[in-house]
Design a protein that fits this description.
Length: 191
């Protein structure tokens, strides 16, 4: 969640970006590592091929400290504030088994993303502070893209299987930039 800028940290706290053009500090970057979870409904055409619909939600946080002063002399105190970004991915994928045991799968598909992000701007010369959370409802934050996935099941007991899954989410607005990479445990139940 670096927004094409290097995340600079000191003692676990993100250093705010300074925008020289607008003479403002911008607090919107988040840590690359966050939390992820979701669910998938899969329809198997046969043991090797399937189509799946999934919902994935991930959250990343950024912690900030600092005390910039506006040009009118007003100090702004930022003490351990935590900003978050929350992504909701809705995906439709084609999944195929890569081995004879049918415990290793690759998937490829499309996704629809809605996200919310908290941010703070401190305009030094203009003497104002803007604190907001932007998302679909107030800013129309939605995008489409592609998703690639790998999943490996390691343990089976009856109808339950336990494994690990990784997904790579790309957006059409910037296909060179990976929006999110997830690595999560998976518990699967076969009907």
């Amino acid at each position: 969640m670096n927004y094409d800028e290097k995340v600079i940290k000191e003692n676990g706290v993100i250093i705010p970006l300074y925008n020289e053009i607008f003479d403002q500090f911008e607090l919107y970057q988040k840590n690359f590592i966050g939390t992820s979870g979701g669910f998938t409904i899969t329809y198997n055409f046969n043991p090797r091929n399937a189509i799946a619909f999934s919902f994935d939600r991930n959250m990343n946080y950024g912690k900030y400290n600092g005390s910039p002063t506006l040009s009118n002399g007003t100090p702004i105190f930022i003490d351990d504030i935590v900003l978050r970004q929350r992504n909701h991915f809705y995906s439709l994928t084609y999944r195929r088994s890569l081995n004879k045991k049918n415990n290793l799968y690759a998937s490829l598909g499309i996704n629809y993303l809605r996200h919310n992000q908290a941010e703070i701007k401190i305009a030094i010369s203009d003497n104002f502070v803007e604190i907001r959370e932007r998302g679909f409802k107030n800013s129309g934050f939605e995008e489409g893209g592609f998703v690639l996935g790998l999943e490996k099941y390691l343990y089976q007991s009856g109808q339950f299987e336990l494994g690990i899954q990784s997904k790579l989410f790309l957006l059409t607005s910037n296909p060179d930039l990976i929006e999110t990479i997830t690595l999560t445990p998976v518990l699967r139940f076969k009907f």
